[in-house]
């Protein structure tokens, strides 16, 4: 249970922010803008295979929100605590193992990512009659939050300033949100770019959240996500073990 103090600290901060109306609004505003601009704007008469466009877009927005919130919270928290407030050094000096620190940070990121996605799920039930959940969808969101929380640990440990985290977001997280199947099918992407697209982890989340069951492509995407999750988690442990102020 050495991870619990790390997790509890993040949850206390999260609870304080959650009580502010502005936090809920800021979590929802970008997905809602996308929903109205794309889903409700062109979704009435446009279909993608068996989906109308709104039905296609909503799972992608859930994946996008879980990615943004799990990654951003962990990356920013570690960066700020390590460089500015220096509270991260207390964990390093205490008898808490590196794996416990990473696990506590990642678990808090998972809860925040799933919470953000849950808000989109509620909006989905209110705006689309055919929107529904299944176990593959839930598994994909939890694993997506784990994967990007672990990536957040890595970025939070390697950045040298708060501005650096924004740089990684601009060149990695934001492009992933637009080009990995969130807003339009991956099949529409020119074939020359597809190898790169299939390397990006959010691509496989977007594949999974639209599956009713695990077929071959679903299993493949699940394995890719698991591989990325383990890689990021282990890299985070290594960075914390090798950390020196």
Q: What is the strand arrangement across the widest sheet?
A: 1-2
Task: Label the overall shape.
Answer: globular
Total DSSP E strands: 2
Distance between the termini: 25 Å
Secondary-structure-based class equals mainly alpha
Low-confidence segments, given as residue ranges, are: none
Overview of the molecule:
It contains 10 helices and 2 strands, in the order H-H-E-E-H-H-H-H-H-H-H-H. The chain is globular. It has a two-stranded antiparallel sheet with strand order 1-2. Helix 2 packs antiparallel against helix 3 and helix 6 packs parallel to helix 10. It has one domain. With 245 residues, the protein is mostly helical.
Keywords:
mainly alpha, 10 helices, globular
Q: What's a quick, concise take on this entry?
A:
This protein has 245 residues and is mainly alpha-helical. It is 76% helix and 2% strand. It has one domain.
List the SSEs and their pairings.
Layout: H1 4-18, H2 21-42, E1 47-48, E2 51-52, H3 53-83, H4 88-93, H5 98-127, H6 135-158, H7 162-179, H8 194-199, H9 201-208, H10 216-241
Antiparallel strand pairs: 1-2
């Amino acid at each position: 249970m050495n991870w619990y103090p790390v997790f509890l600290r993040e949850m206390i901060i999260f609870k304080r922010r959650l009580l502010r109306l502005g936090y809920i609004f800021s979590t929802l505003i970008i997905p809602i803008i996308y929903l109205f601009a794309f889903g409700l704007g062109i979704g009435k008469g446009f279909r993608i295979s068996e989906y109308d466009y709104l039905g296609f877009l909503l799972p992608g927005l859930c994946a996008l929100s879980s990615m943004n919130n799990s990654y951003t919270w962990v990356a920013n928290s570690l960066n700020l605590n390590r460089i500015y407030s220096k509270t991260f050094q207390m964990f390093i000096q205490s008898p808490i193992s590196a794996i416990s620190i990473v696990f506590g940070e990642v678990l808090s990121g998972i809860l925040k990512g799933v919470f953000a996605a849950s808000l989109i799920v509620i909006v989905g039930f209110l705006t689309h009659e055919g929107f529904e959940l299944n176990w593959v969808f839930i598994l994909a969101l939890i694993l997506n939050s784990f994967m990007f929380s672990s990536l957040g640990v890595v970025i939070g440990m390697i950045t040298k300033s708060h501005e650096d985290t924004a740089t990684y977001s601009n060149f990695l997280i934001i492009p992933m949100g637009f080009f990995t199947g969130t807003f339009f099918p991956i099949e529409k992407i020119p074939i020359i770019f597809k190898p790169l697209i299939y390397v990006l982890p959010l691509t496989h989340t977007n594949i999974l959240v639209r599956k009713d069951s695990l077929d071959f492509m679903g299993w493949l995407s699940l394995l890719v996500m698991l591989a990325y999750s383990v890689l990021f988690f282990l890299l985070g442990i290594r960075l914390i073990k090798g950390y020196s102020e």
